[in-house]
Structures are given as structure tokens and as C-alpha cells.
Design goal:
Helices cover about 25% and strands about 15% of the residues. It contains 8 helices and 10 strands.
């Protein structure tokens, strides 16, 4: 048996295009790419973790019908030596292991095949020290042609690889996970749901939290009274203008109370209100005094 096998590191998810073939479809090595579909390529040591929750509900349905495509790239086959090692001890000593730059470089070169320029296809590494991932970042990724996500493990990856590939580091928050797979699914879920046709109702993405820099207003549904608590009367009034004002006011209140930093950013981003010229209240006729040179009513020039 050869020490240098030629493994197939890639697994695709999503609808297959129909084409004639003498080979049974379940034996085909790789699913053909759907032209124009947004695509995510995930480099991971655990491809079996995908699609995970991305294969459920609306994102899963969108994956099945071809609105987007998921390709997992198994890192292990790109490893070194007979045992396909992908990591080594940290330079300078210390606990844990670090993913090797040469191994990751081979995986990234494979992932970069048939992708457009990096402006349309960013490469992202999920890291606690990255820039916080937010709704604006999700929208930016959704506007691209696709994204390649590198899932870290152990103590992280060799810094030289990040610098060489100019990889964008993204963080979900100030906490540490055992690997990047869960974070990758969160990033992809937030992004894929913004793709046209995934949610069905575009208004859903326009009215939710962070869409306009605010947290979402409270939601209610039947029954009208539950445990002595009633649905606010304004939501049952049928007055859409009043409902919109109530929801806006609630969104502002909740944002200011729960996320002061977000509220401050929202306030700073609002265009300044036009300065209104305050008109003096007209004095009673008996007290009104004409301006210099002005004529009183009834006067003639």
C-alpha cells in the first residue's frame, strides 16, 4: 500500500444538476457546481459535522433546491507523512498543538480552485481574537459570490499562513470553543438566510434585530390572554401607523436598555435633524408692536 495515497478531500452538499452519465450518480466523486449559486467552502478536520443544523428548516431546504451550495474540504488528506499529520508543537514551547502553515496552504489552494478574485470570495478564519461578527458582516458575505471558511483546532494556526493569505479573522464573541465548526455554522446561517429566496418573505430580514441598527421589538401571538398577560392593545387596533410607532419605540427602548453600545452607535449614525426656525408666538393685537418701518394693518403708504 502506498504511503502517498490520493484521497478525495472534498464533499459537496446541495442539489445535483442533471446530466447523462454511465456512472451511477451515487458513485460520482463530486457534485457539479450550480452556476450562479452562492457557495461556502469549509476547511475542517471534521467534515461529518456539516451540514449539521444548516441542513434543517429553511437553510436546509434552500440547500436542497440549489439556492446555495456547501462544500466541505477535509483537512487531513493534505497532512504530512504516512499519518497525514496536520499539526505540530508551538514554536517557543507551550501547551497544545498548532495547525501547520504548509498543510493549510495546500488545503486553501485546493479551495481556491475556480473561485473569482478575493474581493468577491473572501477567506475567513474563525478566531476569538478576530473582529466581532455582526449583521453588517453577514450582509457583506451574502453579497459576495461565496466564502471559504477555515475552522481552527487546538491552539490555532501558524500566523505565517494568516499573513501570507491575508485571511480575515472573525469572532463570535469573547469566549473559546474547541473548534471552529460550530462558529462556522453560525456564520453561514446568518449569511445564507439573507440570500434571495431563502426566507421567502424579504420583509422578515428587514424588520428583525440589527437590520436598522436596533434590537427587534417584542413579538406576540395567540392566545390573546395568557397567564393573566394580555397582548398590547395597540397591536390589536388595526392602526398600522400606530403599530409601527409602537414597535419603533419599543425597539429603541430595548436597545438603549440592553445594549448601550449599539444604541450609541445607532444614535451616532442617525442623520442630524434639520434645524427648525422657531417662530415667535404672535402677541395679542392689543400688545403687538410694529417693527421699525413696518405698516400697521389699514395704513396706507
Amino acid at each position: 500500500m502506498s504511503d502517498d495515497p490520493t484521497p478525495q478531500p472534498t464533499k459537496s452538499h446541495g442539489r445535483l444538476s442533471i446530466r447523462a452519465s454511465l456512472k451511477p450518480r451515487d458513485l460520482m466523486e463530486e457534485a457539479p457546481r450550480l452556476k450562479g449559486a452562492w457557495e461556502a467552502r469549509v476547511i475542517t478536520l471534521f467534515p461529518e459535522a456539516f451540514p449539521g443544523t444548516l441542513g434543517l428548516s429553511l437553510t436546509g431546504k434552500a440547500l436542497d433546491i440549489g439556492l446555495w451550495r456547501l462544500q466541505t474540504i477535509h483537512l487531513r488528506p493534505f497532512g504530512e507523512g504516512k499519518h497525514r499529520n496536520v499539526d505540530d508543537t508551538p514554536a517557543g514551547g507551550g501547551a497544545g498543538m498548532v495547525l501547520r502553515a504548509d498543510v493549510l496552504d495546500r488545503a486553501l489552494r485546493h479551495a481556491a480552485e475556480e473561485t473569482p478574485d478575493r474581493a468577491r470570495w473572501p477567506v475567513v478564519y474563525l478566531s476569538p481574537r478576530g473582529r466581532p461578527f455582526d449583521q453588517a458582516a453577514a450582509r457583506r458575505l451574502a453579497e459576495c459570490d461565496g466564502v471559504t471558511i477555515l475552522c481552527g483546532r487546538f491552539e490555532g494556526v501558524d500566523q505565517r499562513l494568516l499573513d501570507h493569505w491575508n485571511i480575515e479573522e472573525i469572532s463570535l464573541g469573547d469566549f473559546v470553543l474547541t473548534g471552529g465548526e460550530i462558529a462556522a455554522q453560525a456564520v453561514l446561517d446568518a449569511t445564507v438566510r439573507l440570500l434571495p429566496g431563502v426566507l421567502g418573505n424579504q420583509a422578515s430580514t428587514e424588520e428583525e434585530s440589527f437590520s436598522d441598527g436596533l434590537l427587534e421589538h417584542p413579538q406576540f401571538t395567540r392566545p390573546q390572554v395568557w397567564e393573566g398577560r394580555e397582548i398590547p392593545a395597540v397591536l390589536q387596533s388595526g392602526n398600522h401607523a400606530e403599530i409601527a410607532r409602537w414597535r419603533r419605540a419599543e425597539a429603541e427602548r430595548i436597545t438603549a436598555e440592553r445594549q448601550p453600545d449599539l444604541w450609541a452607535a445607532h444614535q451616532a449614525a442617525r442623520p442630524p435633524e434639520p434645524t427648525r426656525r422657531r417662530s415667535a408666538r404672535p402677541a395679542p393685537k392689543s400688545e403687538a408692536m410694529p417693527l421699525s418701518g413696518a405698516a400697521l394693518p389699514g395704513d396706507t403708504a
